[in-house]
């Protein structure tokens, strides 16, 4: 059995590729020329060059693969040219799925995002069935991933053998970029968190997310979505855990998210017109902080037997990896 993994140079994709290799699956990965390949070091995989915006390269990469794990995405809270989100995440996903269908790929797992899952108006945890619409999506990343998921669901109804997974906020080793969640950990370790917003998130070990992908491939129902997560926490609770792990004091000043909005707008203006680099305070992240991103992962537990490593262990692994690789000092 051979599986193609897109996005294997990234945080979640690398964890999926490693889990597949450990399970004895023959793995092919597709990466753009010039990609950072550190997450593939020591991993016995076949590497091919390609791009989600190049259909011929996708056909070449898929040929001979019975399974597809589509993990790749343009994942960021800002881009100088927002069209990249839609070219990669929407059009690229549709073309990849259509190519897989043409080639007769037998089984597909598509990595969506928790941002495409709705949140109840009463503030309770969201589920795979919570209603949601494009109008509720904040920012180009979430909008593009929502639209991509709709494309995949439409293809599933037309017969594409695809299962969708929606990871929450993964943490752990090899977050080389780092992801927005990983950046919060790094900033905390550097003592940059002088205040916090009363928001919430669902944390999960990235290795459990990877296991969830393999379980979705094996057990998931075609056309269904599965939230891959673990524990709902407030941001303050996350900082308290990080404080115990690092010895860095957790911030005590609580600010309403509205107080950060003017700073985020100023940062966005600087990013767009002066620095041309990602803003330190991303506006879309501040907008998301308005909501407690809490979710019910029961469906994945029941149907996939998703593992649940304690989030304290996952955070400890992340802290140790960031220290060992120079992101923050001890």
Per-chain topology:
Elements: E1 2-6, H1 11-22, E2 26-31, E3 46-49, H2 55-62, E4 67-70, H3 83-103, E5 107-111, H4 140-157, E6 162-167, E7 169-171, H5 180-189, E8 195-197, E9 200-205, H6 206-219, E10 225-228, E11 231-234, H7 235-246, E12 253-255, H8 257-275, H9 283-288, H10 298-304, H11 311-324
Parallel strand pairs: 1-2, 1-4, 2-3, 4-5, 5-6, 6-10, 7-9, 8-12
Antiparallel strand pairs: 9-11
Helix pairs in contact: 1-6, 2-3, 3-4, 5-11, 7-11
Summarize the structure.
With 330 residues, this protein is α/β, with parallel strands linked by helices.
- Say what the CATH topology of the domain at 2-171 and 205-230 is: Rossmann fold
Q: Counting H and I runs of at least 4 residues, what is the number of helices?
A: 11
Radius of gyration (Å) = 19 Å
pLDDT < 50 stretches: none
Explain how this protein is built.
It is a single chain. The protein is an alpha/beta fold. It has a domain at 2-171 and 205-230: Rossmann fold (3-Layer(aba) Sandwich). Helices cover 43% and strands 16% of the residues. It has eleven helices and twelve strands. Helix 3 runs parallel beside helix 4 (140-157) and helix 7 packs across helix 11. The model has no long low-confidence stretch (mean pLDDT 89).
